[in-house]
Design goal:
alpha/beta, Urease, subunit C, domain 1, TIM Barrel, 2 domains, 8-stranded mixed beta sheet, 22% strand
Amino acid sequence: MKTMKLFKASLIALTLASPLLAYAESIAIINATVHTVTEQGVLTNATVLIDNGVITAINPKDISADKTVDAQGKILTPGFIGSMNQLGLVEVSAVSRTRDARDKKADITFDPSIAFNAKSTAIAYSRKGGITSDVVIPNGGDDMFKGQAFIANLSGDYNSIVENNVAAVIGLGGKSKGSRALNLQKLRRKLEDAQKKLAKASKKLADNKAKKGDKKSSKVDKEPKRAEKEINALLTGEKPLIAHANRASDILELIKLKNEFNLDLVIAGASDALSIAKQLADAKVPVIIGTLRNLPSFDAIHASLENAAKLVKAGVNVAFTVSGDTHNLYQLRFDAGVAVANGLSKTQALASVTANVADAFNYNAGRIAIGKKADLVLWSADPFELSTHVERMWIDGKEHSTTSRQDALRERYTTETNMPRAYTK
């Protein structure tokens, strides 16, 4: 009897702890117009099967699922992926105690994911824009390295951080005091010094193997400091370097560093990238741009609403971020629509808010394909049209509401109740 009780207790504990419980229900989405963002293109009257949080089949012969959703011919896309913002790290920009993306002492080791607020009201609001996950970055501090990016899904669950420390973030370009050259010089020297240390350590390891009987060779090297480990991760290609840069000359210097040190480089901002599009394409460096950046400046002479289309035509891998505050993340699809209105195809625009972002950060999402995360959005119509809305959304195979705090407030003050009415003039 005691053994049976222990077995039951263990089973209950295992059940409560298992993340697969959230994905227990398999779902078949049928009769959908599926924009796969793969070589398969657009599939009509298609079926997508979801199980255990991933896409397990597309147009299977046998549709066997716990639940069936009839899309009635409407558009099904991968969930959109936001990036280059502080979602979950800031609630009210004007209230300092709600801002956790920046600290004066922050450096390359700064991990802001510790402060991520999964219950931020901005998260539910962003879901209304079809966004199912986000690459969140810190604002950093005085150091040129701003810290570490992380990926979170927009489920609103406390365990919604998918992966932390996914990329190192560095801010480059013009400075209000001093020269932009200094940070570029510092970056080069840090990489050079770290590369020499790694080469020295590798040689020492090889020598030690050749001298197994030599007691002196057994000396253990000092453990690298945390900041050194992060630089080493860039040199070994373990994680990307997100570099904020706009001026073409700055980007060209970064391309040199990428080639010399074999960096996995991502350029954010890139407002003047058009003038060096060939170099970016040849170096296979993706750029993350705001499509609304069309005002020229000293660092962005070639800023234009047509830049997205022209960069893609030149062979550059382009992803989109919203222009402005983190709370505007909902508008990502509208910004993509602006790019469509200025020469970009809808297929390319969809890739720029899904697959291209996922590829830049080695994230297993952004496409409707077998084995990919079941982050999906069913739209009322064309997702890049203003009047379109999200009808249904799945994150990791689990359906989520798009009701936000703003919706609740609207209902509160437009519905007749016994509660006191809001003040009106």
